Amino acid sequence: MKTKNTPSPDTPKDGATSEKTSKNPASATAVPENHLEFFAEGAHRKDGIEVGGGFSCSDLSMRRLLAMAAVSPEGSTDPVDVALKESLRYRFRHGAPNVDIPEKDFDPPCDRRYSLARISDMKRTKTGESKQTVIVRGDLESVMNVAQPKRAQRTLLRKNAQMAGSRGYRCLGVATATVDENGELTPFQMEGFVNVRPVGTGLQDGDLTPTTEDWVRLSVWSASLRFLHWLNVLLIVLLSITGYYIMDPFFGDTFFRGIEIGYLMGIMRFIHFTAAFTWMAIGAVRVFIAFVSKDRYLRWETFWPLKKKQDWKHLYETLGFYLFLRKEGPLYVAHNPLQQLTYTSIYVLGAFQMVIGLALYALPHRNENLFWQLMALPNDWFGIQQMRLIHAAIMFIFWAFVIAHIYLAFRADSLERHGGISAMISGGVWMRRTSKPVDAPEL
């Protein structure tokens, strides 16, 4: 091991420093294995660097992971080392483990983005066997390249690191390897990461309200579009409930019981037809807005996002990100290509649903005028029962989309912290300063 006594470039700027281990019995105390934990109340703040929790992907508790990450030469003045040791003392209120090691057992990151620390006596648990251990700490991607975790574990680490990064943290990866009886080093095992950041960077613990210092609020969705969106939600719910009842009355009396059934079916049909014609009117308004609006996010051009070769590239990158094949996808203020193509498909499917609904509605009116005769023709081509089946199937497709839409919206908001959920109420999203979205200038 090299023995340099310079502050390691392990700060959030370059990414990696020393490690820590325990030489006192307190360090071997086993604690419940909280694999994911943010020290919202326990984060120790000091001028310079603050520690904000982390993520354990092994059997280590968060306290044990923090202890490993804090191992560094005795008397080190590196800001990250100091912050980690302070946080460790806070976490172990009844005696923190000794994480100071001799300089000869520490190899700082000179020509790489991680440091190495050697601990002569380390236990993973209270009753575990003491082993000589080498700890790697530093830039998460660099540490993962050393440990070579499986794809699923690598993806899990990146997803949690992305969430931490949205709060301004840099993730210091931690991996370990033991020395066997023959003096050979075993393969490195990925343990997780610890979050650090300069004090005052990003969002503060316990307060996820974005500030204008680190985030920019962009107005994306106009009031008219938001109104149409929520009116669509209401109408689709009404159409689904009443349509399902028309297909299969699931409450109330029916004529099969041989008693007076009242006018419940008539009420349901009236609500269904009223909501349907209102929905068609909204569709017409949306088409009108697409051609006359000056808002770039409402124009008809947005319905087809693949206008040039670069757009196809972004589509493949987004698809790879959604399938966990890429670390990250291109950043968009509004909809990415995959989202927009999905919404455009829903618009087209909705238009088919309206045509089929009109065709079924035209059946008792086809002798009244030429319009209803023309609208009823699809029933002659495909059959009434087939038309009803398609009408019902599209309803279920709509609800499959609604469920996926809600899940993905909440998932994206929880990972990116951009206020996507509230955007359909307030009209604005939050983007971190210096972001470079594809569909907007650099912030």
Automatic annotation (TrEMBL):
<dbReference type="GO" id="GO:0022904">
    <property type="term" value="P:respiratory electron transport chain"/>
</dbReference>
<comment type="similarity">
    <text>Belongs to the HupC/HyaC/HydC family.</text>
</comment>
<feature type="region of interest" description="Disordered">
    <location>
        <begin position="1"/>
        <end position="35"/>
    </location>
</feature>
<dbReference type="GO" id="GO:0020037">
    <property type="term" value="F:heme binding"/>
</dbReference>
<feature type="transmembrane region" description="Helical">
    <location>
        <begin position="227"/>
        <end position="247"/>
    </location>
</feature>
<dbReference type="InterPro" id="IPR000516">
    <property type="entry name" value="Ni-dep_Hydgase_cyt-B"/>
</dbReference>
<dbReference type="GO" id="GO:0000166">
    <property type="term" value="F:nucleotide binding"/>
</dbReference>
<dbReference type="GO" id="GO:0005886">
    <property type="term" value="C:plasma membrane"/>
</dbReference>
<dbReference type="GO" id="GO:0005506">
    <property type="term" value="F:iron ion binding"/>
</dbReference>
<feature type="transmembrane region" description="Helical">
    <location>
        <begin position="267"/>
        <end position="289"/>
    </location>
</feature>
<dbReference type="InterPro" id="IPR023299">
    <property type="entry name" value="ATPase_P-typ_cyto_dom_N"/>
</dbReference>
<keyword id="KW-1003">Cell membrane</keyword>
<keyword id="KW-1133">Transmembrane helix</keyword>
<dbReference type="Pfam" id="PF01292">
    <property type="entry name" value="Ni_hydr_CYTB"/>
</dbReference>
<feature type="transmembrane region" description="Helical">
    <location>
        <begin position="389"/>
        <end position="410"/>
    </location>
</feature>
<feature type="transmembrane region" description="Helical">
    <location>
        <begin position="341"/>
        <end position="363"/>
    </location>
</feature>
<keyword id="KW-0813">Transport</keyword>
<dbReference type="InterPro" id="IPR016174">
    <property type="entry name" value="Di-haem_cyt_TM"/>
</dbReference>
<protein>
    <submittedName>
        <fullName>Ni/Fe-hydrogenase, b-type cytochrome subunit</fullName>
    </submittedName>
</protein>
<feature type="domain" description="Cytochrome b561 bacterial/Ni-hydrogenase">
    <location>
        <begin position="220"/>
        <end position="427"/>
    </location>
</feature>
<keyword id="KW-0479">Metal-binding</keyword>
<dbReference type="InterPro" id="IPR051542">
    <property type="entry name" value="Hydrogenase_cytochrome"/>
</dbReference>
<dbReference type="GO" id="GO:0009055">
    <property type="term" value="F:electron transfer activity"/>
</dbReference>
<keyword id="KW-0472">Membrane</keyword>
<keyword id="KW-0812">Transmembrane</keyword>
<feature type="compositionally biased region" description="Basic and acidic residues">
    <location>
        <begin position="11"/>
        <end position="22"/>
    </location>
</feature>
<keyword id="KW-0349">Heme</keyword>
<dbReference type="InterPro" id="IPR011577">
    <property type="entry name" value="Cyt_b561_bac/Ni-Hgenase"/>
</dbReference>
<keyword id="KW-0408">Iron</keyword>
<keyword id="KW-0249">Electron transport</keyword>
